């Protein structure tokens, strides 16, 4: 799998980068995205054509890894939206990083550690109450062994 | 077939190692009957040659293997179990029967295997850290607590809860990395490893992926003489921090989850594929356990799952640079099961190769079945799992300063390997060295006894002999006995100086072990001083004779049996 230089692209490491394929269907479906995404599109004014692009995601597989079931019509509905998001991240590839020090994390503040001092979380009733199926003292879940 | 007595085991042990060493030459095609019988010997060893451990796994148990060539067709096997003083045998007390096998098939296996193949073994170990709280939240962790009592929104993965790293985890991983001669990454990070399983409510495990905190180290160890002896150095590929998952109890139509363990800090230690036998792998795990206990970063208890080993085993023709197909073995709960599972797996793969079925060895995960003493298929590996790692956005970069690393380095205790080399240089035998350095508390006790001026060899003998036996009988650790190292030194000096006899010394020892007190006090209290003055002794004898004129006459008349009577009166 080819890895982009941008860390953000790791998030989408499912998707293959393919410089030859470009996205051009952005305008028609961008309305369905939250406003901050559209704003970013406008203000940054990055053109999809100038950046390296991502291969469209295999939506059924994406849904499977996220344990989400999608009906065929939903796949049709979501595919262009997901493609939009991927395209947006793909634009990051165009950013010139030649003069930027490589970083392993975006923030550089460093450690925010705590002492090894026990503290008991008091409102355990609320925690247990939020468990869908609970039978003292265990959380009950469906069968998982020999399923895969 | 008889069981050899303890006294003869040493002698016979030698013949066992000799016959194993000569296995290669003995297997030449012309002497086929030899190879058959030696295979019997080998498969016997594969199934029974064990590193046994006490329930506390402090000390290893040893089977001595003895073979004696009766004639060219039969190799008789004898086995004796020698247990050192502080140990409890956990298994296989009965004498294993001679292995009966179809001769032609197995002869081929061993021929091909011993001449042409070698085993490649790598180990992944998870060490549960003995921090008071979990890795990313302040929930206390205590093994065996009521299920689902030590939980909070963070370790339950509830929305909006944010992890904060426990500083002890950093301290402990730096200690472990330095103890294993690793290079530390001064800048590293956490990553999310995605997988769906109910033992991990977040849907991902916080781990380290492409920048582990420690890499490129090694571990030194000494193989016990019973297993051939020798020093080994095994590479450590990487060490990284991650969180443990909860516990799942599977039942017929569902599963029960206990999240107490979810979020408890683990260190994953990946070895280089440097081991070649089950014994080497078991000794590697035993050394890791010693090191984490010396460092005080984990209790290293395998039964509780504080030290878990998954081993990868493959075999390949000698000289071939590529590895064969590797098989992962899980469910290894003791050093002896590591050893036996690996040797079983090697012989299983060798047998498949010898039958032209090398392609039946597939990449899979197998489970060690303690009851049946074999590995069974658990699941096939269908390609690499897609964990979709990405940097954990909720945690900042992990930054170590060189000053911090140096300060941890300076605080490291003397580690098992250093202790062994020091004891060896002092002139102790390897058997003594391995016993004394095995448990840090025993080693400290020994060192303290020496610093009170005690003789080296005598101190070692008392600790490994009567004191270890007492600890075993009373189920006490060396920190729980009442005898202080200083008084042991005193006792040794009193015997060596002739103040008391060795026999009286032993009596005093058991009194001191149980009740404490001082050697001087006990000698005075019981009036046990050994009288060395010949004049004083002469007076006592005169007194006894004059008080027993009748017996004295009988003695002079030839009833020499009365000698014992007089000796008793003098005492």
From TrEMBL, chain A:
Domain of life, source organism: Eukaryota
Keywords, comma-separated and alphabetical: ATP-binding, Chloroplast, Ligase, Mitochondrion, Nucleotide-binding, Plastid, Protein biosynthesis
SUPFAM superfamilies with a match to the protein in the record: Glu-tRNAGln amidotransferase C subunit
Subcellular location field: Mitochondrion; Plastid, Chloroplast
EC number in record: 6.3.5.-
Catalytic activity: L-glutamyl-tRNA(Gln) + L-glutamine + ATP + H2O = L-glutaminyl-tRNA(Gln) + L-glutamate + ADP + phosphate + H(+)
Database matches in Gene3D superfamilies: Glu-tRNAGln amidotransferase C subunit, N-terminal domain
Pfam families, alphabetized: GatC
PANTHER family in the record: GLUTAMYL-TRNA(GLN) AMIDOTRANSFERASE SUBUNIT C, MITOCHONDRIAL
Summary of subunit composition and partner proteins: Subunit of the heterotrimeric GatCAB amidotransferase (AdT) complex, composed of A, B and C subunits.
Function summary: Allows the formation of correctly charged Gln-tRNA(Gln) through the transamidation of misacylated Glu-tRNA(Gln) in chloroplasts and mitochondria. The reaction takes place in the presence of glutamine and ATP through an activated gamma-phospho-Glu-tRNA(Gln).
Alphabetical list of NCBIfam families matching this protein: gatC (TIGR00135)
Family: Belongs to the GatC family.
Protein's name in the database: Glutamyl-tRNA(Gln) amidotransferase subunit C, chloroplastic/mitochondrial
Species, as recorded: Hibiscus sabdariffa
Gene: GATC
UniProtKB/TrEMBL annotation, chain B:
Pfam assignment, any one: GatB_Yqey
Asn/Gln amidotransferase domain ranges (all copies): 444-570
InterPro entries in alphabetical order: Asn/Gln-tRNA_amidoTrfase_suB/E, Asn/Gln-tRNA_Trfase_suB/E_cat, Asn/Gln_amidotransferase, Asn/Gln_tRNA_amidoTrase-B-like, GatB, GatB_Yqey_C_2, Gln-tRNA_amidoTrfase_suB_CS, Gln_synth/guanido_kin_cat_dom
PROSITE patterns recorded: GATB
Keywords tagged on the record: ATP-binding, Chloroplast, Ligase, Mitochondrion, Nucleotide-binding, Plastid, Protein biosynthesis
Subcellular localization(s) per the UniProt record: Mitochondrion; Plastid, Chloroplast
Domain of life: Eukaryota
EC number in record: 6.3.5.-
Main location (coarse class): mitochondrion
Catalytic activity: L-glutamyl-tRNA(Gln) + L-glutamine + ATP + H2O = L-glutaminyl-tRNA(Gln) + L-glutamate + ADP + phosphate + H(+)
Family (UniProt): Belongs to the GatB/GatE family. GatB subfamily.
Annotated function: Allows the formation of correctly charged Gln-tRNA(Gln) through the transamidation of misacylated Glu-tRNA(Gln) in chloroplasts and mitochondria. The reaction takes place in the presence of glutamine and ATP through an activated gamma-phospho-Glu-tRNA(Gln).
Subunit and partners: Subunit of the heterotrimeric GatCAB amidotransferase (AdT) complex, composed of A, B and C subunits.
The name this protein goes by in its record: Glutamyl-tRNA(Gln) amidotransferase subunit B, chloroplastic/mitochondrial
Protein's organism: Hibiscus sabdariffa (roselle)
């Amino acid at each position: 799998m080819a890895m982009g230089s941008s860390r953000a692209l790791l998030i989408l490491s499912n998707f293959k980068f393919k410089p030859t394929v470009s996205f051009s269907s952005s305008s028609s479906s961008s309305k369905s995205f939250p406003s901050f995404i559209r704003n970013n599109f406008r203000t940054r004014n990055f053109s999809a054509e100038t950046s390296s692009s991502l291969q469209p995601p295999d939506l059924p597989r994406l849904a499977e890894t996220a344990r989400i079931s999608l009906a065929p019509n939903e796949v049709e509905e979501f595919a262009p939206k997901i493609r939009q998001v991927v395209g947006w991240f793909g634009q990051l590839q165009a950013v010139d990083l030649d003069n930027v020090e490589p970083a392993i994390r975006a923030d550089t503040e460093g450690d925010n550690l705590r002492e090894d001092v026990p503290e008991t979380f008091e409102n355990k009733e609320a925690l247990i109450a939020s468990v869908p199926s609970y039978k003292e003292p265990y959380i009950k879940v469906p069968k998982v062994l020999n399923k895969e | 077939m008889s069981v050899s007595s303890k006294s003869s085991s040493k002698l016979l042990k030698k013949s066992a190692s000799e016959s194993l060493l000569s296995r290669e030459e003995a297997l030449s095609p012309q002497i086929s009957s030899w190879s058959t019988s030696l295979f019997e010997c080998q498969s016997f060893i594969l199934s029974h040659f064990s590193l046994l451990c006490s329930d506390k796994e402090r000390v290893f148990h040893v089977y001595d293997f003895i073979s004696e060539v009766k004639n060219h067709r039969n190799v008789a096997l004898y086995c004796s179990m020698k247990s050192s003083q502080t140990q409890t045998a956990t298994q296989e007390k009965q004498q294993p029967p001679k292995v009966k096998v179809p001769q032609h098939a197995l002869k081929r296996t061993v021929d091909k295997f011993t001449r042409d193949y070698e085993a490649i073994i790598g180990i992944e170990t998870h060490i549960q850290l003995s921090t008071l709280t979990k890795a990313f939240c302040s929930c206390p962790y205590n093994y065996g607590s009521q299920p689902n009592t030590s939980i909070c929104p963070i370790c339950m993965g509830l929305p909006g809860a944010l992890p904060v790293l426990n500083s002890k985890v950093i301290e402990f991983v730096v200690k472990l990395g330095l103890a294993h001669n690793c290079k530390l990454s001064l800048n590293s990070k956490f990553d999310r490893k995605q997988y769906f399983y109910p033992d991990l409510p977040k849907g991902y495990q916080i781990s380290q992926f492409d920048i582990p905190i420690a890499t490129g180290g090694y571990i030194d160890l000494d193989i016990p003489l019973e297993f051939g002896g020798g020093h080994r150095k095994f590479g450590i590929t990487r060490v990284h921090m991650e969180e443990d998952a909860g516990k799942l109890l599977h039942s017929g139509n569902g599963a029960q989850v206990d999240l107490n363990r979810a979020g408890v800090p683990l260190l994953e230690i990946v070895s280089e594929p440097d081991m070649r036998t089950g014994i080497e792998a078991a000794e590697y795990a035993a050394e890791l356990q010693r090191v984490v206990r010396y460092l005080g970063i984990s209790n290293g208890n395998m039964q509780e799952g504080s030290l878990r080993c998954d081993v990868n085993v493959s075999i390949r023709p000698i000289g071939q640079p590529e590895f064969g197909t590797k098989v992962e073995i899980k469910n290894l709960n003791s050093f002896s099961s590591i050893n036996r599972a690996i040797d079983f797996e090697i012989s299983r793969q060798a047998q498949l190769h010898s039958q032209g079925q090398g392609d039946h060895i597939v990449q899979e995960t197998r489970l060690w079945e303690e009851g049946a003493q074999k590995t069974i298929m658990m699941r096939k590996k269908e390609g690499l799992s897609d964990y979709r790692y990405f940097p954990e956005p909720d945690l900042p970069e992990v930054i170590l300063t060189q000053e911090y690393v140096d300060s941890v380095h300076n605080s490291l205790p003397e580690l098992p390997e250093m202790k062994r080399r020091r004891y060896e240089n002092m002139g102790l035998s390897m058997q003594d060295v391995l016993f004394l350095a095995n448990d840090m508390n025993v080693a400290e006790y020994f060192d303290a006894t020496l610093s009170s001026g005690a003789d080296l060899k005598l101190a070692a003998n008392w600790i490994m002999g009567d004191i270890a036996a007492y600890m075993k009988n009373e189920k006490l650790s060396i920190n729980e006995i009442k005898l202080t190292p200083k008084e042991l030194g005193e006792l040794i000096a009193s015997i060596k100086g002739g103040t008391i006899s060795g026999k009286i010394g032993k009596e005093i020892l058991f009194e001191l072990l149980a009740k404490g007190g001082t050697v001087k006090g006990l000698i005075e209290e019981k009036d046990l001083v050994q009288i060395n003055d010949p004049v004083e002794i002469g007076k006592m004898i005169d007194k006894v004779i004059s008080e027993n004129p009748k017996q004295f006459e009988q003695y002079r008349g030839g009833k020499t049996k009365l000698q014992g009577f007089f000796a008793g009166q003098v005492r």
